[in-house]
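Holo model, magnesium ion. Inputs:
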Amino acid sequence: MAQPQNIIAIVYDYDRTLSPRSMQDDVIFHKIGVESEEFWGRVNRLRADKAYEDELAWIRLLLENTAFRRFSNRDLEGLGRGLGFYPGVPEVFQELGHVLGDEKYSRHGVTLEHYIVTSGLKAVLAGSSLNRHIEGIFGCELDEDDEGKVFWPKRIISHTAKTQYLFRITKGLEYVDLSRDVNDHMPEAERRIPFRNMLYIGDGPTDVPCFAVITSRGGRALAVYDPGIRASFETCMALREAQRVDEIAEADYRRDTHLRRLMEHYVERMADRIVAEQQSEHESRIIQAPRHG
Ligand SMILES: [Mg+2]
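Output:
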């Protein structure tokens, strides 16, 4: 069945996009007696010496830690309450909705949804204050043993696998159910949120596959940098110069910042286009009507 396609989605990476630190550094390491530099050094050695994928390397090292193995997924959710974010998060999720408060948009039922696709742990984000503003969170997931303690990865979202979740978002809420095969064919008109109604926000090379999926299909992409880290800015500039993203901005989501204005701008332009599409479709139906009458 054809969809009204009047939903706009903003899809966010998590680490260094919504937060200045990785969730491991932020809330996990100090609970399990791990020293950050040493841990990531071991991750790098597994990658270099044994060609591990990044996510499998850090999940293996966490699950080898006896203190971490005492956690349940519920415990990981509890850690999520301690996460720190860039300025303006999570307020931005609610405040951005006001852009669509204008009658010209509400008349056409234009709405905004937020999604997070991360290579970090979903459980940690699910327990954070972001959760209640977010339509869907996709991330790595751990299974629990008979005693209810985490012991094995049941879902790994590597940075190349992140794009699969963009297809789940475009196809609709039933595809947020991960038991459903995302490769089912679905015609454009039946998609709940077409890619041209999506804005993706990320921070670096690990987001390039997502930037490419979105921008090649008419959506928009922004790269954000940490103003305190020069290399972060240079990474974003390189993405901009390679035309991977439409714009770059400092990761400050507060009102009246450059990033906030860009987000509002893209949401408004998408909303205007949705309204124009609905009006022209309505007019073409009126014009056609006498011929059938
Ligand atoms: Mg990131």
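The CA atoms of residues 55 and 158 lie 6 Å apart. The chain has one domain: 7-22+85-292.
Archived with the compound record.
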